[in-house]
Design a protein that fits this description.
By secondary structure, the chain is an alpha+beta fold. The protein is built from eight helices and four strands. The protein has a four-stranded mixed β-sheet with strand order 2-1-3-4, covered by helices on one side.
Length: 205
């Protein structure tokens, strides 16, 4: 039995954690959670993640939930994979910013655009401000690239690359050249291809 167990629905938001696990190269087990059958609301799974969401990651006796937290944890737990920015490196700040920016800003902006409110809230009430500003900030960050931290691919690219890929797939994010080029660089990584192939196989199971 591996030290790592991913509670996963294929494909879903937990596919991001699956990609991150492949990037670390560490052995892991997968426990499939059927969202269609409501297994994410079973009492046994709610003991793992009371939110009833995937992913959840068990690392020995520790359970981590939320995609960006899982990616941050794995990057720090397996530093030899080169996916984190060390604590004593000044770039740690921008690196953490992008890990938090994914779920806190980018995903929120996209979901609000996809499912608009009846009445638009004041800009100051939204953590991301406005959709166009969020998109422009990301576009500048991935240019010239190749990755958010320059030449170094990190866990932040797993999070932001996944957000952009998903958003463009569902036409919720504009297919700007900056985004398509950046996502292409991210998903061309061997770990990303392995994760996608595994996800497709799991979805057929």
């Amino acid at each position: 039995m591996a030290d790592l167990t991913l509670y996963h629905a294929a494909p879903s938001r937990s596919s991001v954690a699956l990609w991150m696990l492949e990037e670390t190269g560490a052995p892991y087990d997968i426990r499939l959670i059927s969202l269609k059958q409501g297994a994410n609301r079973d009492p046994g799974y709610l003991d793992v993640n009371p939110m009833g969401k995937v992913p959840a990651l068990r690392h020995r006796d520790v359970v981590i939930t939320e995609v960006a937290a899982i990616c941050t944890w794995l990057a720090d737990a397996y530093p030899d994979a080169g996916l984190n920015i060390p604590l004593d490196d000044p770039r740690r700040g921008p690196y953490l910013k992008w890990l938090f920016f994914g779920p806190g800003v980018l995903e929120s902006a996209v979901m609000d655009r996809a499912f608009p409110r009846v009445a638009a809230p004041p800009r100051a009430a939204l953590g991301y401000g406005d959709f166009d500003t969020a998109m422009e900030v990301v576009a500048r960050a991935v240019t010239p690239g190749p990755f958010l931290m320059g030449e170094r691919f990190t866990a932040a690219d797993v999070v932001i690359g996944s957000n952009l890929r998903w958003g463009m797939l569902f036409k919720a994010i504009p297919e700007r050249r900056e985004f398509t080029d950046y996502v292409a660089r991210c998903v061309d990584r061997p770990a990303a291809r392995r994760a996608q192939a595994k996800d497709e196989e799991l979805a057929r199971a």
